[in-house]
Amino acid sequence: MYFPDMGEQCQVGEGREVRAVGWLDIAHPYTPGTVEPAFVEALRRHVKTAWAPVVAAGPHFCQFCPETRGGGVGASGNVWIPSERYLFVAPELVVHYITAHGYRPPDAFIEAVLTCPPQGSPEYFARLTPFQHAFPWIDEWPPPR
Ligand SMILES: [Zn+2]
User: Fold this and answer.
1) Among 87, 3, 5, 7, residue whose Cα is nearest residue 53
2) What is the pLDDT of residues 91-101, one digit of tens each?
3) What residues are paired with 29 via a beta bridge?
């Protein structure tokens, strides 16, 4: 499912401060470029340990891999990366898009990932609190672990 980078909506959230990143689709060109290995490592760590306020309906499959028709690279998770200004939301596949297809996400996202506290930590929720309204279904804040 395609959403433009830095758009205010994606499959699992929308709002004035929400910024979609990495919701790629074969029908739309994406920004190519290289990124620092440290960024990829940090992003991978966030994705692996992602705090998930939403359970996705099903996996996304990479449309850029030729083997997709036979059931290729797929993932169903998402990751929320709060910065001071925006709440970035990316699909788990974003790591694959970067490492396998040379996708370069927006600089603001790269910065946010590098400075984001560990997922689920008190510091993480402190940074997420200004965007609490993006999760109206969560009654208790910060959410119990
Ligand atoms: Zn792929």
Assistant:
1) 87
2) 999 999 999 99
3) none
**Cα(122) to centroid of ligand 1, in Å?**
34
Beta bridge pairs of residue 78: 91
Q: How many Å lie between the centroid of ligand 1 and the Cα of residue 100? A: 6
- Rounded to the nearest angstrom, the distance between the alpha carbon of 88 and the centre of ligand 1 is 22
Q: How far apart are CA 79 and CA 49, in angstroms?
A: 9
What does DSSP assign to residue 116? P
CA 62 to centroid of ligand 1, rounded, Å: 5
Which two structure tokens, joined as six digits, stand for 119? 């997922």
Provide the whole-model pTM: 0.91
Please say whether the dihedral angle defined by the alpha carbons of residues 18, 22, 28 and 32, taken in this order, is positive or negative.
positive
Whether 98 and 47 have beta carbons less than 8 Å apart is answered as no
pLDDT digits (tens, 9 = 90+) for 32-72: 999 999 999 999 999 999 998 776 667 778 888 876 555 56
Alpha helices by DSSP H, listed for the chain, are 37-48, 94-101, 107-115, 122-128
User: How far is it, in rounded angstroms, from Cα 31 to Cα 129?
Assistant: 31
The Å distance, Cα 70 to ligand 1 centre, comes to 13
| Residue written as token pair 């996996």 | 59
